[in-house]
Design a protein that fits this description.
It comes from Aspergillus sclerotialis. Keywords: ANK repeat, Repeat. It holds the Pfam family Ank_2. By secondary structure, the protein is mainly alpha-helical. The protein has 2 domains: 7-96, Ankyrin repeat-containing domain (Serine Threonine Protein Phosphatase 5, Tetratricopeptide repeat, Alpha Horseshoe); 132-241, Serine Threonine Protein Phosphatase 5, Tetratricopeptide repeat (Alpha Horseshoe). 49% of the residues lie in helices and 0% in strands. The chain contains 13 helices and no strands. Helix 1 (5-20) crosses helix 3. It is elongated.
């Protein structure tokens, strides 16, 4: 295996790390070397570490596992595929997003997010897993406005009416963030409109006075124009990651 000089220095540091560094805490364990390798897309380092006995499923760092950080960082054919090849637990719970598939749905690029989600689903990821707050991959995709990701999730069995621990649905997330196309797609696929509450906050009066409405307010109004029933108000600010 060819390893460039820079990567070789990583290997030496990794070897020393594995022999001498052992900081552990229940949830916020220090990031491991293989975690950093995945974060930066160093496939050769990952191969070297695993060939020298490093556990691909060891935990540490903000995203918890090698697979979750690779999924969120947006590496498809490179790191994610390699990590899965070496036996990464695709449904391992932990880290910032809770599960790799949720992290993939939260990735900034819609096209890359779709690729990652498809890859993880085809590799056995549970599409309806929820993190500690009850948020699923569908929640995050709806929040980001990733319409094609939302479609992929729904086509593969994601529950359109799933609610977080505080009662927030993917439709809430889409409306709050002004993602009208996603909200319409969700409703076309069974999302219950009765779950959609009109999102208001303290700035609404000022926005109206200045003749401007924020995206989440305008999308809520548009959705409500098709339904005469008013269900109340809800502030979901604390449900955002």
């Amino acid at each position: 295996m060819f390893i460039d000089p820079c990567s070789y220095r990583w290997c030496l540091w990794a070897d020393a790390h594995e022999k001498t560094f052992n900081i552990e805490s229940p949830r916020h364990r220090h990031p491991t070397v293989i975690y950093y390798a995945a974060l930066h897309g160093f496939c050769n380092i990952i191969e070297w570490l695993t060939s020298h006995g490093v556990d691909i499923n060891e935990t540490g760092g903000l995203f918890g596992t090698v697979l979750q950080v690779a999924a969120f960082a947006g590496y498809k054919d490179a790191v994610v595929t390699l990590v899965l090849k070496y036996g990464a637990d695709i449904n391992h719970q932990g880290g910032f997003y809770g599960y790799p598939v949720i992290g993939a749905a939260a990735f900034g690029s819609a096209s890359k997010s779709e690729e990652l989600v498809r890859l993880l689903l085809s590799s056995g990821a549970d599409i309806n897993v929820a993190n500690e707050g009850g948020l699923t991959a569908l929640h995050l995709a709806a929040r980001r406005g990733h319409q094609f990701v939302v479609r992929v999730l729904i086509e593969n069995g994601a529950k359109a009416n799933v609610q977080s621990s505080t009662g927030v649905s993917p439709l809430h997330q889409a409306a709050y963030n002004g993602n009208i196309g996603v909200a319409q797609l969700l409703m076309e696929n069974g999302a219950t409109r009765s779950f959609l509450l009109l999102f208001l906050n303290f700035s609404l009066t000022a926005e109206c006075a200045n003749d401007r409405i924020s995206p989440f307010v305008s999308s809520s109004v548009i959705l409500y124009s098709e339904n005469s029933t008013f269900f109340g108000m809800r502030d979901v600010t604390n449900d955002r990651i």
